[in-house]
């Protein structure tokens, strides 16, 4: 790509709907930071988690509509999309069917998060509970789930899951171990998307991730992981 353009499929930038931005002003600032790092397409993905983040989908849609209008009025003329980051719960497939949990830009893809600490009894049946209703889960920041082995990724991929990793994980921002896991996944071709998972006070590093993947694996793959794969699936 001559000019940087990234499609960020995982962000917490909408105001006052989860643990991301706490005000409209802060959201505009976070969005500006994304734009300055090369982002042209932003998927807003507030948390939706039954025991913790319960903002109803209808509220996310309302905030999305008003905030993106304001962002454009403030000169932030990016492409905007809405989804949610869904924390797995056995009720989630049914909530998706009812429109109470959101897919990514009304597609058949979702961002799916697992517990940070407890390995699910059967991730096979979890993945299947989504694919059975025609939904493809994109597992978010796999590097953060220490109880999974990299070999689990191959099995989940066979069941139809895709994988997103966080850009800053490549650089060991959270831990050297997570950086190793991401690099291993990249080397095995197990990554479909690199996104920021941007919360206030966190780093974006999409531009750095693009340069890293370009150097290690070629620009073709960098373009796919940071733009083309998402544009193909979610672009309007
Ligand atoms: Fe997230």
Keywords:
6-stranded parallel beta sheet, binds fe (ii) ion, TIM Barrel, about 40% helix, about 240 residues, globular, alpha/beta, 3-stranded parallel beta sheet
Walkthrough of the structure:
This protein has 236 residues and is of the alpha/beta class. It has one domain (6-234): Metal-dependent hydrolases (TIM Barrel). The chain has helices at residues 24-36, 57-73, 92-97, 123-131, 150-158, 176-187, 206-217, 219-234, and strands at 6-8, 39-44, 47-48, 79-82, 85-87, 109-113, 136-139, 162-166, 193-195. Helix 6 (176-187) links the parallel strand 8 and strand 9 (193-195). The longest helix has 17 residues, at 57-73. It is globular and about 45 Å long. The two termini are 20 Å apart. Fe (ii) ion (FE2) binds at residues 10, 12, 85, 197.
What's the topology here?
Elements: E1 6-8, H1 24-36, E2 39-44, E3 47-48, H2 57-73, E4 79-82, E5 85-87, H3 92-97, E6 109-113, H4 123-131, E7 136-139, H5 150-158, E8 162-166, H6 176-187, E9 193-195, H7 206-217, H8 219-234
Parallel strand pairs: 1-2, 2-4, 3-5, 5-6, 6-7, 7-8, 8-9
């Amino acid at each position: 790509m001559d000019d940087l353009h990234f499609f960020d499929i995982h962000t917490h930038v909408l105001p006052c709907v989860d643990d991301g931005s706490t005000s409209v002003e802060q959201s505009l600032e976070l969005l500006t930071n994304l734009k300055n790092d090369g982002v042209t397409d932003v998927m807003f993905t507030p948390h939706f988690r039954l025991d913790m983040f319960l903002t109803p989908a209808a509220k996310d849609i309302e905030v999305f509509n008003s905030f993106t209008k304001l962002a454009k009025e403030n000169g932030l003329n990016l492409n905007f999309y809405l989804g949610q980051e869904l924390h797995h719960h056995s009720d989630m497939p049914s909530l998706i069917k009812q429109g109470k949990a959101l897919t990514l830009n009304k597609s058949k893809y979702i961002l799916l998060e697992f517990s940070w600490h407890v390995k699910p009894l059967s991730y096979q049946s979890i993945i299947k509970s989504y694919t059975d209703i025609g939904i493809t889960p994109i597992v978010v920041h796999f590097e953060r789930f220490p109880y999974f082995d990299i070999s689990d990724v191959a099995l989940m991929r066979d069941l139809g899951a895709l994988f997103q990793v966080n850009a800053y994980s490549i650089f060991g921002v959270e831990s050297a171990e997570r950086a190793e896991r991401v690099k291993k996944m990249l080397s095995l071709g197990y990554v479909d998307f690199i996104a920021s998972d941007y919360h206030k006070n966190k780093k974006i590093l999409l531009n750095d991730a693009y340069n890293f993947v370009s150097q290690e694996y070629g620009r073709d793959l960098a373009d796919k992981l940071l733009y083309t794969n998402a544009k193909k699936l979610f672009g309007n």
